[in-house]
Task: inverse folding
């Protein structure tokens, strides 16, 4: 038995979570990295090959982009139902079911002949994929020692950035050789292998406690209570505002760089996605720093870094713009890793529902703010768009500073054993 598996002193049988350095801790982090790749590679794989998809299926560019929107909307819709499922069958079985279903639907996409059918399947794929972001941080909170949960959350988020990058950069060259179905299919095969690795690596869950049916709070009442909790609502707002601004910049920066005076070809602007690697590094660093400095301090610094990167993109120099993109990406993913992990730690009851709500707001921000940012860009240009996004980030930071400074939301890494808690009890 590892040290991480021993009962807490003074509490026979009380589960304290796997400690950093234990074999179970390492297996969980490797497994969630694989799950992040399986989820976000599939979610975004069509994004870099939309022109080929539009040509092959004889649809307009904006119609082809619905393949991304259908999946992300499906994911947003799916997170709360997956939290309900997980309360009844456990986090780990629900995540395994989620990834397996998404892989099956991913293969169905590449053989479906009609555009409408593909859209329906992509929406279903998104709903299936919603199980991973809805439950991963709750699973970490239950299985990892509280002293290391923030670092573990940051490591998980870094894995999701790798998945998002791989889906975009693998599908494109594969599609050039095998067509768009072959490009998407290649990513699905990789996602399937990652799903198998996730199933094999994860140790048996020990932190989940199923509440008796008579003790479960109705889902809508529980969600309403969380939406009335100022600290949780503030964390949900971080996801909405920061993700919305981040997606806006990535959506429309390529348009700026392909126009005068830069006039870069699309093959070059596609390389901007490599800036995601800055998020792979920063999300894990943020988790580590929060153990020393506290979550709030790291969150505010991360938002400030993001704003600095946004402002750098206003400079009419290609190299400065690229540096700005790297800086804002690092700042965004650091802030996201703190806010998402803090949501799971902050929820007193309904932890799976709280993390699901965070993801719901996160993807709503991507859809709503991403669209609104396009309106600003079309009518007022890049400078107005960048300043609007910087303003949203500033609002998020001020909101966090005002609400999360309260004693109950200090963000300090817990030093005491976690209480046993089942979502819905």
Result:
């Amino acid at each position: 038995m590892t040290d991480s598996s021993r009962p807490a002193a003074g509490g026979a049988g009380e589960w304290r979570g796997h400690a950093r350095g234990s074999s179970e801790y390492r297996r969980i982090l490797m497994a969630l990295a694989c799950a992040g790749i399986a989820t976000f590679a599939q979610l975004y794989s069509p994004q870099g090959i939309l022109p080929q998809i539009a040509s092959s299926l004889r649809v307009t560019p904006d119609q082809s982009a619905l393949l991304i929107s259908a999946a992300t909307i499906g994911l947003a819709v799916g997170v709360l139902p997956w939290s309900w499922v997980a309360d009844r069958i456990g986090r780990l079985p629900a995540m395994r079911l989620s990834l397996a279903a998404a892989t099956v639907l991913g293969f169905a996409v590449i053989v479906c002949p009609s555009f409408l059918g593909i859209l329906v399947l992509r929406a279903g794929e998104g709903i299936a994929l919603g199980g991973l972001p809805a439950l991963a941080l709750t699973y970490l909170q239950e299985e990892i020692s509280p002293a290391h949960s923030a670092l573990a959350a940051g490591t998980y988020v870094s894995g999701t950035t790798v998945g998002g990058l791989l889906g975009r950069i693998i599908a494109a060259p594969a599609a050039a050789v095998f067509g768009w179905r072959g490009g998407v299919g290649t990513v699905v095969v990789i996602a399937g292998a990652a799903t198998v690795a996730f199933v094999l690596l994860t140790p048996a869950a020990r932190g989940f406690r199923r509440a008796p049916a008579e003790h479960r709070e109705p889902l809508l009442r529980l969600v309403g209570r969380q939406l009335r909790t100022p600290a949780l609502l503030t964390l949900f707002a971080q996801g909405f505002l920061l993700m919305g601004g981040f997606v806006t910049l990535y959506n429309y920066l390529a348009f700026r760089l392909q126009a005068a005076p830069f006039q870069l070809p699309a093959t070059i602007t596609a390389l901007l996605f490599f800036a995601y690697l800055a998020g792979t590094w920063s999300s894990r660093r943020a988790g580590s720093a929060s153990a020393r400095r506290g979550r709030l301090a790291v969150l505010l610094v991360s938002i400030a870094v993001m704003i600095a990167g946004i402002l750098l993109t206003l400079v009419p120099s290609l190299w400065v713009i690229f540096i700005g993109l790297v800086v804002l990406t690092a700042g965004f993913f650091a802030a996201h890793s703190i806010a998402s992990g803090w949501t799971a730690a902050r929820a007193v009851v309904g932890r799976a529902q709280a993390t699901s709500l965070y993801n719901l707001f996160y993807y709503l921000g991507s859809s709503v703010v991403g669209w609104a940012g396009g309106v600003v860009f079309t009518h007022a240009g890049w400078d107005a768009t960048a300043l609007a996004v910087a303003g949203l980030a500033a609002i998020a930071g001020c909101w966090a500073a005002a609400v999360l400074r309260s004693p109950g939301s200090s963000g300090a890494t817990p030093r005491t054993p976690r209480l046993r808690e089942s979502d819905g009890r």
Observations:
- The chain has two domains: 16-207, 218-414.
- The two ends are 30 Å apart (CA to CA).
